[in-house]
Write a structure and sequence with these properties.
alpha/beta; 6-stranded parallel β-sheet; 16 strands; 49% helix; binds Broken Fe4S4 cluster
């Protein structure tokens, strides 16, 4: 039954209507996960194996222990995840350089203020120089961060002083982004690093090259090139697909092409061409993190998150799904072949078997985008019957860390003081980042939504990214009205600042924004002086990607307590489980715990938040310390006095009262 697989009614409707279509939901139920690999008890780093370390076999042919094998497997996952994010950042640096040289058709620098601020942070001279010259140096410095052999990546200077000193002492500073990945792959080659703790230290350093390197510079350069997000309104879910328009779904991660597709979709020539084929317009929608990129900056509606990708095509209404890199299911070709949908692969790194290949060239970006849209329009006359669920939800997105600071103090007094004060007083109990994917092994969006609901009911302010953000948005959690679900203290603060209790801060690369937000909270003062002091948690309820594991690792290395749902990928080695949870906590003040039971995961989250409050000497959290918030008081007044009299009371000005 579809509703055992997803809490999303649109997803269930499509699944129920396509019973002859095999999707990832079906494959997850028929294809059982390998129990040996799932526990990280399988070693295949050499060809004497694969060695299965089960039962009495507690060592591989070479003598590798379960702890060594689990640590190596985990490390390799993090290296792959860090590579994916960072390579995305590298491509953005190349684009920035091309734009600065005037060689990138259709792009321009949209946020000069951010360019100046990033240049300042990187120590690049700005006075008396042209914007393009500065951009060229920023792009070059970003690239240098990849190939640096000695020293450290530039962005570490954004961390708190205490954190920087700790990283230096523990030798956790990534030297160059690429160097750390290469070294980690070397260390985990057969017969090299054999000590689990030592492997895991290098794993943290590699992940740091992602969080404070590749991802952070990807976010910054995206903001410089495409604009720093600010709040905007949009819609979400499969119902955003249009029955009478050419539907193009952008899917993957990199904003470079999707930005151009957004621009080209309103080109009069293409609109006219769409009309000539009988369509009323060109409708763009997104899946996965490309969706988040174009949502955050342009309000393009997401059609869904990771597990919705096949379902969007199965509505029969998608003329083209345009994919670049990461999180693109290989099964999309089969689904697309059942309909008139063109699956268009665009990355030179990712050839998709059976897809139409239209490699994207940033030097001719606008022309590439137009050719893709034209190809989608050509498919429109072949469209058959459609099955678009009438399910949409409103949302507010677009909260960059800059905008969150701006909302708390305006242009000249941009600060995190109001937020810190609210946490210190106990109006806000703590902060949580709910991030990550969908995973076909668990019910789609169930963990994400339950966790967010419980957190805000208990006065925890939530920031969301990636498919967890789109997962939350589908159920109205990013609407201002969702404020009604929040605890009184949180609601009052959010109303005063003007932010929702669930704040969408971007794609999975934009988890770097969460590092920046937490660092700003720590440096603002009043809650300690480092991320490790804050009453804050990171939660990844439905992870499936190696990138999620890299994110969890860099957050832990930055002092955050991180909880993952689904399944513990190193569960076969209690030693490694303990090293990542407790060993890291003792070493860097953060760690990762896997807890598939959502209720127990929430207990751990609240326990950590409250213990950090106590350690920092903050007021003990009491949901009723400040009574009900203003709007609840008004409700109570209205009940007591009747609406007219109550409205008269709370709208009376002081002058009228006197
Ligand atoms: S897309 S990495 S499923 S968040 Fe970033 Fe979503 Fe996870 Fe892919």
């Amino acid at each position: 039954m579809a509703d055992e697989r997803s809490v999303d009614s649109a997803a269930c409707e499509v699944l129920d209507g396509c019973e002859d279509l095999v999707t990832s939901f079906d494959r997850a139920s028929t294809l059982k996960a390998c129990p040996i690999g799932a526990e990280s008890l399988c070693c295949k780093v050499c060809y004497m194996g694969p060695c299965r370390l089960v039962g009495k076999n507690d060592r591989g042919v070479c003598g590798a222990t379960r702890a060594t094998v689990a640590a190596r497997n985990f490390a390799r996952s993090v290296a792959a995840g860090a590579s994916a994010h960072s390579d995305h950042g590298r491509d953005l640096a190349f684009t920035l350089i091309a734009v600065a040289k005037g060689e990138a058709q259709g792009y321009r620098i949209r946020d000069e203020a951010k360019l100046y601020s990033v240049a300042g942070m990187l120590g690049i001279k700005t006075e008396g120089r042209s914007v393009n010259d500065i951009a060229l140096d920023v792009g070059q410095e970003a690239l240098d961060n990849f190939g640096r052999q000695r020293g450290k990546v530039s962005y570490l200077s954004r961390a708190t002083k205490r954190r920087q000193a700790l990283w230096e002492k523990l030798e956790l500073e990534p030297r160059g982004i690429d160097r750390e990945v290469v070294e980690l792959l070397h260390r985990t080659h057969m017969g090299v690093d054999q000590d689990a703790e030592h492997i895991l230290d290098a794993t943290m350093r590699t992940a740091m090259g992602d969080g404070w390197g590749g991802s952070m510079l990807a976010t910054d350069i995206s903001d410089i090139l495409f604009g720093t997000p600010s709040p905007l309104q949009s819609k979400i879910n499969l119902g955003v697909l249009q029955d009478d328009q050419v539907n193009i779904v952008v899917h993957g991660h990199e904003p470079t092409l999707s930005e151009m597709i957004v621009a080209a979709a309103s080109d009069p020539e293409l609109l006219e061409y769409a009309e000539s084929k009988g369509a009323k317009g060109i409708n763009l929608a997104g899946i996965c993190c490309t969706a988040n990129e174009v949502l955050m900056r342009h309000g393009i509606p997401p059609a869904g998150n990771f597990l919705s990708q096949e379902l969007a095509i199965a509505t029969g209404s998608v003329e083209a799904m345009v994919v670049d890199v990461q999180c693109i299911m290989q099964a999309l070709t089969d689904v697309a072949n059942r309909f008139h949908t063109k699956l268009i692969a665009t990355s030179k790194k990712a050839k998709v078997e059976g897809a139409e290949y239209m490699p994207f060239d940033e030097h001719k970006a606008y022309d590439s985008a137009k050719a893709i849209i034209r190809s989608a329009i050509d498919a429109y006359p072949q469209r058959g019957a459609t099955r678009i669920p009438a399910v949409t939800e409103e949302l507010i997105a677009g909260f960059s860390h800059e905008y969150i600071g701006y909302m708390q103090g305006g242009l000249y007094r941009n600060s995190f003081r109001p937020l810190n004060d609210a946490v210190a007083s106990g109006r806000i109990r703590g902060l949580a980042g709910v991030v990550g994917c969908n995973n076909a092994r668990v019910k789609q969006d169930e963990g994400i939504t339950k966790i967010i609901r419980e957190l805000i009911r208990n006065d925890v302010l939530v920031v969301v990214t990636g498919c967890a953000a789109t997962g939350a948005a589908k159920y109205g959690y990013l609407r201002p009205e969702f404020m009604a679900e929040a605890g009184a203290g949180l609601r009052e603060v959010c109303e005063a600042i003007g932010i929702p209790p669930v704040v969408h801060v971007g794609s999975c690369v934009d988890n770097s924004r969460i590092l920046t937000i937490l660092t700003q909270c720590a440096t603002e003062g009043g809650l300690g002086d480092d991320i490790a002091d804050l009453p804050a948690v990171g939660i990844c309820p439905e992870y499936m990607s190696e990138k999620a594991v890299a994110i969890g690792t860099y957050c832990a290395a930055s002092g955050a307590y991180v909880l993952f749902g689904v399944h513990n990928p190193v569960g076969g080695s209690p030693e490694v489980v303990d090293l990542i949870a407790n060993g890291w906590m003792n070493k860097v003040g953060g760690g990762i715990v896997w807890e598939p039971d959502i209720d127990k995961l929430l207990e751990l989250a609240f326990k950590h938040i409250d213990s950090k409050r106590e350690e920092a000497g903050l007021a003990e959290y009491d949901p009723m310390r400040f009574g009900e918030s203003g709007d609840r008081l008004i409700e109570a007044l209205e009940k007591q006095l009747g609406q007219e009299q109550a409205v008269g009371l709370y709208t009376a000005t002081p002058a009228a009262e006197s």
